[in-house]
Amino acid sequence: MKPRAPPLQSSRLLDQMRERIRYVHYSLATEKVYLYWVRFFVRWSGRGGQMRHPRDIDAAGVEAFLTMLATERHVSASTHNQALSAILFMYREVLAIDLPWLDGINRPSRRPRIPCVLTRDEVAGVLGQMDGITALLAQLLYGTGMRLMEAMRLRIKDVDFARQVIIVREAKGGKDRVVMLPHALAPALRQQLLASRSQWEADRHSQRGGVEMPHALDAKYPRAGQSWAWFWLFPSPTLSVDPRTGVERRHHLYEDRVQRALKKAVALAGIAKPVSVHTLRHSFATHLLQAGTDIRTVQELLGHADVSTTMIYTHVLKVAAGGTASPLDALLRQKSRLAEATITTADPYVLPPPSSHHVQETCAMIYV
Predict the structure, then answer these.
(1) CATH class name, domain 120-318
(2) Which of 55, 75, 131, 195 is the most buried (most CB within 10 A)?
(3) Does this model's pTM top 0.85?
(4) Which of 252, 281, 282, 287 is catalytic?
């Protein structure tokens, strides 16, 4: 049986949403998205008149809202599911309404897409156009298969040079995993460690607030956020205000900085593929499989809960390996051989090979 959540302290719907989302430890990004969709849903339901409370909206109203998203706004399946998840969370976790029709609402299925993958030469070309800390991060993403935010949230204690591993904490699904620390990046990561140490010492000297701590660790260990072990491996050069607590502290590097640098590098490298930061992760997995790494190992490195998710990269390999020849190639080769045979045997303008006697006469004429 699901444990009962504590009673809500707020009276306004959006404040209740925030309270419950933080109670279940959802990320700030999820909080923003869920609040957006609930606000949008309430305003849409009251169009042309007075806004209604979601408690007064029935199944037909929810389905009409979802239909509008698909038919009028033409949202993708993932966005459609996101909106539905926000509404279901509001009804079940905030309003404590678990009506039978909630389970009857169908979720749109996502169509499988073949991921964009770069060749090794293309990866080298893109990385060669980058420099500084964004280049190090791009190399780390390709060299380990981490997601962008997983790399951004690395703490000093998560990098183990002795064992040559990096520990990814609370990744997608709240799980931890271990990835390799590329030998080629060890010197650059040590230099980044020294730069991060300098920033940490400056913050301690200025008596600034410690870094953000996960969940309740800040209450359990009040000074842990100021310790060197919990400091960011890639700290931001500027301070920012925590939107949840209002505390000014140093956050990790802003993720858009890497995305912008990568887009610029792709253009300079002359690559016409739809490359994003996540493409480095796709390329990591595909290149490992090409090198003969078993798919279970790749699954663990990527942190996939189901091997079927990792299997998408085998579809890329089937095409990239060129194991099945196109019938057009066979047809054109056959046509080319027939054309060569026709020219050799039937063309009256093709001269026969010269005889040795003819060659001697020609040489004699040249030297006269």
Answers:
(1) mainly alpha
(2) 75
(3) no
(4) 281
